[in-house]
Structure formats: structure tokens, C-alpha cells
Amino acid sequence: MKKFLFVSAALVCLCFAFLLSAPIPEFSAAVETTLRFAGQLPPEHAATGYMNDIAKTIKEKSGGRIEVKVYPANQLGDYGLVHQELIKGTIDMALISTPGDIDPRMNFPYINGFASDYTQLENAFKTGGWAFKKMDELNKPLGVKFLGFNVEGFIGIASTKALVEPLNPKVDKGVLCRVPNMAVYQLGAKAMGFRTMTIPYSDLYTSLQTGVVDAVDGLPPAAAYAILKDVTKFWYQTNYSIEAESYLMSSKTWDKLKPADRDMIADVVAKVAAKSVPLAKAEDEKYSKLMADAGIKVFKYTAKELLPIQQAVAATWPKLADTMTKPFMDEFNRELAPK
User: Fold this and answer.
1) Which residue in 170, 307, 183 sits closest to 240, CA to CA?
2) Nearest to 72 by CA among 38, 104, 44
């Protein structure tokens, strides 16, 4: 019995000594704030990956006090509805296309012709630049805080037929081209020499397959490859427009955060947004190669070669004054006109 008690006591001492020598586990702070982060793209899309990176970094930098829950693929509604919910404060953060129904000027990132290579685009969309400040200025009266741009890539033309003199805006391209239902795209395509038709995004494949249209614009290489590679014979990297979304936060949420947390979140988003430009360039190159490997004839051009169509598209900007106002378009032209 005494031997048993002695052994038991020794084991207790050893366990106690082990506990004293073991490293003390680190415990993060309890969650104080949960932010709902809405997105419009699928879970596997790069933009959703950026959202997850932002959520993870915010949690780490706040020591676990701020948790961000990501809702991709329009789980909380399409971009128009999400923007309304940001205004109300019922959604906290979003990475979405900026809707122009309340203020058409918020569609300015989609104005065709202001950049034709990634150096120009990086300068145009840099944090603290004119476009950044203007998007924040337009959202602020609505109760929404702008945090940065996410660039997906430059837009080109997917076609079943060879274009006639693709870099000469004075020549009819010989195809009927689908364009998105936005004035900026319709004006831009016509200025480049295309006859146009508006067709919903969901019908792009069947429209090309059945010959309703001969060409499609409004897509960067990644989307064109994913959606249209089986029905596309030619890809023209005209870079006349871009695909991009905005990082936004409800002002109601922003105002509730501690100043230090606001600074931290703004910095986290800005760093991820800055990465989107070089990553978008890499994506364009990757999917252009994949299209070529799939038997699609790919045409790529320098900024100098693209300048004639870029200038022709920019010449249509005054026609946007009716919806975006003349003062705004004068300012846009002054800041971003192709040179």
C-alpha cells in the first residue's frame, strides 16, 4: 500500500513538473465584432480568394477580436442589392461591381479607353489616386466607404470570324458583336468599328454557337477561356476596357470601429488591392496562352499599336455627359485621357 502511494505521489509530481515546463498556449481574444463580407464571384474565383485572405489577415491582426465571414457567389444578393444593404448597414463589407442606378458616375471604371496596358492601369487605380478618391467621394453621401479596386483584367474580343483591320477604328470590322447593356460599352465598340447587339451574359455561348452574333466583347481572357473556348476561333486582346470591382464598407460599420481598427482594415485591403494588378496581368498571359493551346488564334498588341482605337474610343466620352454630367466627364478627361 505504501509502495502504491509512493508511486502515485511520484507520478503526480512528474505530471506537475511537465505542466510547469510545457509552453503556455496562446489564446486569442474573444470575438468582439463579426463582419459580413459579400461577394459576387464563385468560391473558386481569384477575387473570392482575395476576400478570404483579407478575412484571415484582419482576424490575425486584431488578435481574434474581429471576425470576417465571407459570402461569395451572390449568397447575400446581387451587386445592386448588396450595395443597398451596405447603405442600410445590414451588410458590412463587399467586393462587388459598382452599380450606376443611384449615381451613374459610379460606373466610371468601365468607361472604355482610359488605359491600354497595365502600367497605365496601375497608375490610374492606385490607392490615393484620382480614381480612388473619386469613387470614395461618390459613395460617401450614400453611407458607403470605398477601400480599393480589384482588377480582374483587360477586356478583349472573342470572335468566330477574323476581324477586318482590328486596329483601324475607321473600318467596319465585318462582324456583329455582342456588347453589355451599358452606354460605355456600346459607344466604345461602335467607335472601334463594330456593329453591336446587346445580349445577356448568360446567353453568350449559345449566341456565338448559333451565329446570332459573330463576336463577343466584355470579357477578360480568363472568362473568355472558361465560357467560350469551344466556340471561339479568334481572340483579340484590344485592352479597350477593364473588368474590375470595388471593395466597399458600410459607413455605419466603419463609424462603429475603433480608429486603429479602421486604419488596420484599410491597410489590409489596400495591400490586397495593389496585388490584383500584377496578378491580373499574369492571369491575362496565362489564359491567352491556354486559348492559343486550345487552337484559338490569339492577337496581342502593344500600347502604341492600340493607341488609334484607344483615342477613337476616348473621343466618345463627351456623349456620356448626359448621364455622368459634363463637369465629371471634363474631370475624367483631364485626369485619364490617353496620351
Assistant:
1) 307
2) 38
Residue 16 has pLDDT above 80, yes or no: no
Instruction: Report whether pLDDT(292) > 50.
Output: yes
Does the pLDDT of residue 131 top 90, yes or no?
yes
The DSSP secondary-structure symbol of 126 reads -
3-state SS, residue 63: coil
Q: How far apart are CA 151 and CA 287, in angstroms?
A: 16
Q: Report the phi/psi class of residue 239: left, alpha or beta, with left for phi > 0 and alpha for psi in -120 to 50.
A: left
Per DSSP, 24 falls in state P
Per-residue DSSP letters for 139-203? HGGGTEEEEEEEEEEE-EEEESSPPSSTT-TTS--SSEEEE-SSHHHHHHHHHTT-EEEE--GGG
The DSSP-derived string for 26-54 is P-PPPP-EEEEEEE-S-TTSHHHHHHHHH
CA distance 89 to 82: 10
Q: φ, ψ for residue 213 (rounded to 5)?
A: -130, 160
| Residue (of 267, 49, 258, 259) closest to 148 by Cα position | 267
Is 224 buried (19+), middle (13-18) or exposed (0-12) by CB count in 10 A?
Answer: buried
Do 181 and 282 meet the contact criterion of CB atoms below 8 Å apart? no
pLDDT surpassing 80 at residue 58:
yes
Q: Model pTM?
A: 0.84
Cα separation, 106 vs 103, whole angstroms: 6
